[in-house]
Amino acid sequence: MPGAKPLSRRSFLRGVSLGGVAVRVGLPALGAMFNSSGTAYAAANALGEREIPSRFLIWFNGNGILERYWVPRETGTDYRLPPCLRPLAPFKKDVHVVTGLDSPSARDPGPGNDHHRAMSSLMSGMSFTGRGAGGPSIDQIIAKKIGGDTRFRSLQVGVCQESFGESVQRNMSWAARDRPLPPEMLPRRLFDRLFGSRDEHWIDRKKSILDAVRDDASALRADLDTADRLRMDEYLTSVREVERAVASLPPEYNQVVEQPPEGGDLKDWPRIAKLQSDLTAHAFASGQTNVASYMLTKCQGLSRFPWLGHTSDRHHGYTHGQVESPAGQRIMRDINRWHVEEFAYLLAKLRSIPEGDGTLLDHTFALMIHEHAEANAHKSSGLAMLLAGGAGDFKRGMHTRVTGTVGDLYLTIASEALRTNVNSVPTAHRKLHEII
Fold it and tell me: Distance between terminal CA atoms of the chain?
């Protein structure tokens, strides 16, 4: 697997744009970076070989689910995918469906509504303060353990913008009590953050960000073997494809509109979601971060769904007043299935990227969560979550009903799957040995 010359995992392609802006493009995991078996990064100094890092991705959709279409009826390995989970069919062996989780602090008396309290409890295990989450979110607890050796300790990514506008509704990541880490909602800005600030030539698409690093790329290519040259060319091509897609977005996607006027909603969130997923995968693949949170829709979200043919109401409205009818339940089924489709897209992207002796998905622990177990009832007990990827020693390809808390799950993920020394999480009482 090694190339002609050993290569540090910390390598970047560097350059300067026509506007004088520094550009840096992270490299994918090339064979020259690994030992002969591809199981660890090759020794670059006296410290010896380094393990391939585990990544942690926590992925959220707001308002909750419709359990009858989302939760499998059977447990164990011989379970059938219900309608909302069918997009996961290609990943069934990589996924563990966990149901029955309780989020007890969501029921603590205090300020806010059921959505505020559910969101704070889900992410931090602590009660809503009246302004935000009661403590650090689980992604930030994990980022303190596995995020310090990267350019970004964590990334916060978002897609659908529409919300009621309060901090706990707009944000899923929290550095500490009442200290939100806002998600980057605009693909242009996320691209800029990962690759360097754009200038006028990039904006009008006359130049590519890759033009700035052409000389550096040519010099590196000369030192690589044939397989790594091909790998690097494929990766840079994928960066260029994302760059073109981001640059082609219409002007209305260049600003955040949290509460659009009636009829003023943006229409193509699946397009944005896939771009944000592509950029998240690039951040993982180039070693720029090991931890990411991905907020597809907001807490108590207000999106419409024209690509599904549902525009008569907003997301939150569909969960109340309409879901009681068969037609309303089918609408919620379609919305929940779209959530899973986007999660599956990101899994597919991670699986398509080679890394060492496996793929990026093999080294990622991806967790899909949602605001409520039953959207209409604001139910915070019996929560269902998806565990996916190959990082850590947890069971896959099955559905398990557990008796435990969200904190129990987070403690199990942090200490067992990601092998950190996290030994306490709010509301955690035990490790869920049923899943490891």
Answer: 31
Under 8 Å between Cβ of 134 and 78:
no
Are 436 and 395 contacting, i.e. CB atoms less than 8 angstroms apart? yes
- So where are the chain's domains? 1-52+206-247, 54-187+253-417
DSSP state of 207: S
Place of tokens 């986007």: 342
What does the DSSP 8-state code read for residue 107? G
Tell me the pTM.
0.94
By the 8 A CB rule, do 158 and 169 touch? no
Q: CA-CA distance, 305 to 309, in Å (whole number)?
A: 6
The CATH class that applies to domain 54-187+253-417 reads alpha beta
Which region holds residue 301: left if phi is over 0, alpha if psi is between -120 and 50, else beta? beta
Would you say 117 and 106 are in contact if contact means Cβ atoms under 8 Å apart?
A: yes
Whole-Å CA distances, 66 to 81, 320, 337? 14, 12, 10
* CA 429/CA 44 separation, integer angstroms: 41
Phi, psi of 180 (to 5 degrees): -75, 155
Question: 358-405: per-residue pLDDT in tens?
Answer: 999 999 999 999 999 999 999 999 999 999 999 988 999 999 999 999
Residue with tokens 């520094």: 22
Gap between the Cα atoms of 31 and 246, Å rounded = 29
Q: Helix (H, G, I), strand (E, B), or coil: what is residue 323?
A: coil
Please compute, for residue 394, the number of CA atoms within 13 A of its CA located in the half-sphere on the CB side: 39
How large is the C-alpha radius of gyration of the chain?
22
